Amino acid sequence: MKLHPVVASLLLAVGSAALAFLAAVVVDRVGLGTVAASIAAAIFVAAAYAVRPVDGLLGFGLLLLLTETVAYWTGVDVRFGDEIGVLLLVVTALTVHRHRLVAPRLGWREAALGTFFAAGVVSSLVHAVPAHVWIPGLALVAKAFVFLYLVIAMPVSVDEVRRMSTAALGVALVILVIGMVQFVAPDFATSMLGVYPRAETRGTIQVVNSWFTQPGLYGWLAAFVSLFLLARFTVLRRAWTLVLALLVGGAVVLSGRRTPAFTILPSLGVAALHQAMARGVSWRPWAAIGAGALIVAVVSFPAMGPFYTRTLTDYFGRPAGIFEVFAENPRAKPIMQLQPRVALYAGSVAIARDEFPLGVGMGRFGSHMSREEYSPVYERYQLHRVFGLRERRPIAVTDTFWPMVLGEAGVIGLIGAVGFFALLFRDIWRSARPVGSPEVTAFTLGALMVFVEALLRSVAAPVFVAPPIAYWVFGAAGLALALRAGSPTGAGESTT
Predict the structure, then answer these.
(1) Model-level pTM?
(2) How many domains does the chain have?
(3) For position 319, what pLDDT does the model report?
């Protein structure tokens, strides 16, 4: 019996991720270690990519999405699954799918990205950053960008994206519903549904995390799904997508995180502006979306409103500490009171001033490698006294994105990175134009909203370098560009 295309996609994507984790468990039990387990897992998603590329990408995304979950369930660590996975996906694309690949035309977008990386490399050499620090640091930053271009390079059809996105929606809804069950019956969810036990209260609600170890990932997934559903509603006008989008959007509140609550509405505003400029917006669906968002806000404000309104105080309530970072001999006492993200931003600006125009080098500030081999730069600005940035437990070092760019690659690197993201935004904006298939327009508009949400989120999170979010956001952006390249109306168009 022939399977429904969506069912086939679901089985291949979920099956490849499940087999990847099973292989990792077997390898780990044999005693071959984390790297071998990660290789075993990556092989299975690469195999799925070899059979059906778009579904294989979803399998890879699920592998990264549930890495921490499986580590909690089984104790097996596949932390290198994204690095090894990207490498195997590239090898598979260049061998199995080489005739299908279309190399993106080089242009200003690539020049801007190259400027960012070149500044980081030159800065590392100038400051004599050890090779075992700056080379892995460069690789960790570059891997998600390599994935983006891997996705862009393979034109896809609307049928491929439709069945994959439907399968992805099904998996995401399962995770989100489990979180809602956790909110209602936490003990049942923990004992029977495998939910990670996390006792945390924000506002007056018990925070929800579902299968994830971090509630922030649950909040991001809810925002990601809600934006795609709202894009589908604005284009195809199907009422069920609006109802489902609002329910999923309500799950954002349950995560207890401020970032998605503050980034969804601006993303919707950009989408409304895009439609208005492209063809003249029909305000009826946007009025429905606005009314629904207002209902969610009114219902949630009594529980979370005071928590949200404390944001400015939490982040900017101690200006003396911020100014102290820029002093010639900064004092530790005012600085140690700073919120870690604020300290990172202030520190990066101070570095840009002192190490103009190249920063301090890769792996030296705001990045994973600066935590793995604790950077002396933090002590230079007394940031090593800030909770979350201390050498003994530097858990907040990677809580941002732009301070890492400015601190490690300087003003030149920042200009390159800003230029790249601006040009990528331009290309996704163009891909979302309302011509051709409504299915294509709905997906590309969703990708635009998700990308805008990620840009806003990057102010307070390492969105574009950390798995799994980096790969899901870049995957959606890459598919939007590849989808237009593969459609009749988009064939032959430059993305640069």
Answers:
(1) 0.94
(2) 1
(3) 83
**Residue ranges making up the domain that contains 19:** 1-101
Residue 126 has pLDDT above 80, yes or no: yes
Is 111 a member of any domain?
no
Cα(64)–Cα(220) distance, integer angstroms: 14
Tell me what pLDDT residue 308 has: 64
- The span from the CA of 192 to the CA of 173, in Å, is 18
Q: Is 391 inside any structural domain?
A: no
Q: What share of the chain is helix, strand, coil (3-state, %, to 5)?
A: 70, 0, 30
Q: What is the DSSP string of 354-383?
A: HTTTT-S-TTSSSSHHHHHTT-THHHHTTG
Write the DSSP symbol of residue 127: T
| CB-based contacts of 360, cutoff 8 Å, min separation 6 | 123, 127, 129, 351, 375, 377, 407, 408
Q: How far apart are CA 250 and CA 345, in angstroms?
A: 31
- At 48-77, the pLDDT tens digits run 999 999 999 999 999 999 999 999 999 999
- Dihedral of alpha carbons 148, 153, 154, 155, sign: positive
Q: What is the largest CA-CA distance in the chain?
A: 74
What's the pLDDT score for residue 353?
96
The tokens of 198 are what? Answer: 């996390």
Residues 477-491: pLDDT tens digits? 999 999 977 655 443
**CA 185 distance to own-chain centroid:** 29
Does the residue 37 lie in any domain?
Answer: yes
Task: Please choose, from the candidates 51, 45, 48, the residue with its C-alpha nearest in 3D space to the C-alpha of residue 65.
Answer: 45
- CA-wise closest residue to 263 among 420, 405, 406, 460: 460
List own/partner pairs for 180-188 with CB under 8 A and 24 or more apart: 180/208, 180/251, 180/254, 182/208, 182/209, 182/210, 183/208, 183/254
